[in-house]
């Protein structure tokens, strides 16, 4: 039987490092990323004959035998970059629709550091420019960090007018609180009139002049790293499913280390002036940064656009020793 050496993988949150298995089925791509199906011959305690081990791509394993050709990823790097670029174009279009009031709500899901917020913020800046020229107040705000249910209620009131928009950027506390989720469900209900109530006395609301009920006519965008299907609480899962049913859901389909790396390369390919346009690099330096990340992607603390720019900072600081600096600042210890 064909064997596979898994150099780096994960099975049920357990690391699988430099372990050989009998191969059952080649590389597949599922909702949670790429995986191989192998025989469990005592390597794992569970009494399961065949197990699926998550890997980051073809570089994470080696095949010994005739199965090699059938497990090669079918999607080329160029095709993957085009797929990712299309998703981000869709994100831009949907963000513009939310700002115009044509779409009530959107959830954007993807890993950190891939530019989820950038496109949304660009669309907001365009909208703000028109408001400023017309002498109108800004019709949006971006909420980051923790937020209580009462704070959520107050923010929804302040931006409750039509074509107002609230952006929740990595504000995942609202997804972990049942009261906050109930408020959001009311705010984003599919009915014609969306009435929100706060049925308890609050000095904060009185001081701010916020009523105990109002109609919400604005829109909302949620930008999150959270995978809703991974939330363990059944009660919260039910609320999240109800919220998801009220929103357009944009999954950026960046589920593997390969996809993250290709997203960085895609930004460098498509952005005007490239990813490193502000660094005055020569024709090779930008590619050297990306090649360095490609080579060491499994050791980077975070495989992201932010990390690429951090390494670019080091090239600017020390053009001849930047790799040594990067080894000690953006990479994990072995």
Low-confidence stretches: 66-73
Structural domain tally: 3
Radius of gyration: 24 Å
* CATH architecture level-2 label of the largest domain: 3-Layer(aba) Sandwich
Percent strand equals: 15-25%
Total helical elements: 11
Which class do the helix and strand fractions yield? alpha/beta
- Principal-axis shape equals globular
Distance between the termini: 33 Å
Question: Average pLDDT, to the nearest integer?
Answer: 88
- Look up the CATH topology of the largest domain: Rossmann fold
* Total number of beta strands: 12
SSE arrangement, N to C: EEEEEHHEHEHEHEHEEHEHHHH
Main sheet summary = 5 strands, antiparallel
Tell me the name of the CATH class of the largest domain. Answer: Alpha Beta
What is the helix fraction of residues, given as a range? 25-40%
Detail the topology: elements first, then pairings:
Elements: E1 3-11, E2 14-30, E3 33-39, E4 50-55, E5 61-64, H1 68-71, H2 77-99, E6 105-109, H3 116-134, E7 140-144, H4 149-158, E8 165-169, H5 178-187, E9 195-197, H6 203-208, E10 213-215, E11 219-224, H7 234-246, E12 248-251, H8 257-270, H9 285-295, H10 305-317, H11 322-329
Parallel strand pairs: 6-11, 6-12, 7-8, 8-11
Antiparallel strand pairs: 1-2, 1-4, 1-5, 2-3, 3-4, 9-10
Helix pairs in contact: 2-3, 2-8, 4-5, 5-7, 9-10, 10-11
Quick structural gist:
With 334 residues, this protein is α/β, with parallel strands linked by helices. It folds into three domains: 3-71, no CATH class; 78-251, Rossmann fold, CATH 3.40.50; 257-329, no CATH class. It contains eleven helices and twelve strands.
